[in-house]
């Protein structure tokens, strides 16, 4: 019996200790306001961690006392104390438009299904002071006032505007320079050209048409015939046949061409040399045979399917090249400055929008 009594006493002491660790406090700050002002009603609960807490819930504009209404309820804030407990603080913003001393009733807080009651509070609401003895001092509401000018707000835009003006002047100057630096007209010509064998055959047709093979001037005939062959060989094979002797031409051609053809060409050049330098006289049939040999050589060595047009690009002087480079530099400089000027202008418009 004695042991049971001791156990019950210990249990009661433990329960009293647990309850003693819960404290509820409420306060109003400030306790005196003018009509329409707001005050903070702070509700603080100290309890052990893990205990269930229920605080009063009020909606905006809800009256908690006659003439006193709730503006808003802020979220609860939880903090730990030095003795291992937690402190939960919740703030209710109140207001009143009724001039008198209001009594705010106690709040009920539930901790682990046990209710705790706060103390009663008071809120004094004062009337707005009005000077009824001097009605002439009452004025109508003021119009919307412009903000005072502040150089710090507009200095950036001022310097940006000066920079924009400088950029526009520089762009105009570069544009004038570009107009004065007239473009170099370097036109590329596309001309039709005859292939080497076509030009040679045209010349031989003229020789035949003029009947030079049967004329008395054999030197002129062979000179013209060999010159035609030399030009053809120079254009077709790529070496300077016009400045070579007959034997040098044969030696350069001998590595690539048919030996029989080389023999006939050698005979033609030998006969021509004899006629031009040794006053050798040939027969008409011999002149015709050399003409046929020249035609056969051209037809045997000609290259078909070659391009018949030639692109001729004009050669520019050093001055023209410098002018072209200058115009390109000016053009890119103008484009870059225009981009910078547009970006700066848009930035200024955005800043003005923010200020206004």
What does this 3D model show about the protein?
The strands form 4 sheets. Strands 1, 3, 5, 6, 7 and 8 form a 6-stranded antiparallel beta sheet that branches. A 3-stranded mixed beta sheet has the order 2-12-9, with no helix packed on it. A 3-stranded antiparallel beta sheet has the order 4-10-11, with no helix packed on it. The protein folds into 3 domains: 22-126, Immunoglobulin-like (Sandwich); 150-187 and 315-356; 191-309. Mean pLDDT is 79; it is low at 10-19. α2 (151-180) packs antiparallel against α8 and α3 packs antiparallel against α7 (284-301). 47% of the residues lie in helices and 20% in strands. It has 8 helices and 14 strands. It has 356 residues and is an alpha+beta fold. The chain is rod-shaped, with a radius of gyration of 58 Å.
Number of domains: 3
Structural class: alpha+beta
Mean pLDDT: 79
What kind of oligomer do you see?
A: single chain
Tally of DSSP helical segments: 8
**Alpha-carbon Rg, integer:** 58 Å
**Share of β-strand residues:** 15-25%
* Beta-strand segment tally: 14
The percent of residues in helical segments reads 40-55%
Span of the ends, CA to CA: 88 Å
| Main sheet specs | 6 strands, antiparallel
- The ordered string of helix (H) and strand (E) elements is HEEEEEEEEEEEEHEHHHHHEH
Low-confidence segments: 10-19
Q: What overall geometry do the principal axes of the alpha carbons give?
A: rod-shaped
């Amino acid at each position: 019996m004695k042991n049971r009594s001791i156990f019950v006493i210990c249990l009661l002491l433990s329960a009293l200790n647990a309850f003693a660790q819960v404290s509820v406090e409420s306060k109003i700050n400030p306790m005196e306001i003018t009509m329409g002002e707001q005050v903070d009603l702070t509700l603080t609960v100290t309890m052990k961690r893990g205990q269930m807490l229920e605080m009063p819930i009020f909606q905006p504009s809800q009256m908690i006392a006659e003439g006193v209404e709730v503006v808003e309820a802020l979220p609860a804030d939880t903090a730990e104390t030095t003795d291992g407990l937690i402190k939960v603080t919740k703030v209710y913003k109140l207001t009143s438009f009724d001039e008198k001393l209001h009594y705010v009733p106690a709040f009920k807080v539930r901790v682990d299904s046990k209710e705790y009651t706060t103390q009663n509070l008071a809120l004094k609401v004062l009337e707005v002071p009005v000077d009824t003895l001097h009605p002439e001092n009452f004025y109508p509401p003021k119009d919307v006032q412009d903000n005072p000018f502040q150089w710090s707000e507009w200095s950036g835009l001022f310097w940006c505007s000066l920079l924009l003006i400088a950029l526009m002047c520089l762009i105009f100057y570069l544009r004038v320079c570009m107009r004065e630096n007239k473009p170099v007209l370097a036109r590329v010509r596309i001309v039709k050209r005859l292939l080497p064998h076509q030009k040679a055959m045209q010349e031989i047709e003229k020789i035949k048409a003029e009947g030079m093979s049967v004329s008395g001037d054999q030197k002129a005939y062979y000179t013209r015939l060999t010159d035609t062959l030399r030009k053809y060989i120079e254009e077709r094979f790529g070496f300077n046949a016009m400045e070579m002797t007959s034997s040098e031409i044969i030696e350069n051609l001998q590595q690539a061409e048919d030996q029989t053809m080389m023999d006939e060409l050698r005979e033609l050049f030998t006969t021509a040399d004899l006629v031009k330098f040794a006053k050798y006289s040939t027969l008409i049939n011999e002149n015709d045979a050399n003409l046929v040999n020249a035609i056969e050589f051209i037809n045997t060595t000609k290259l078909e399917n070659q391009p018949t047009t030639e692109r001729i690009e004009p050669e520019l002087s050093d001055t023209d090249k410098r002018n072209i480079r200058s115009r390109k530099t000016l053009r890119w400089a103008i484009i870059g400055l225009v981009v910078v000027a547009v970006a700066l202008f848009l930035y200024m418009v955005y800043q003005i929008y923010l200020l206004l």
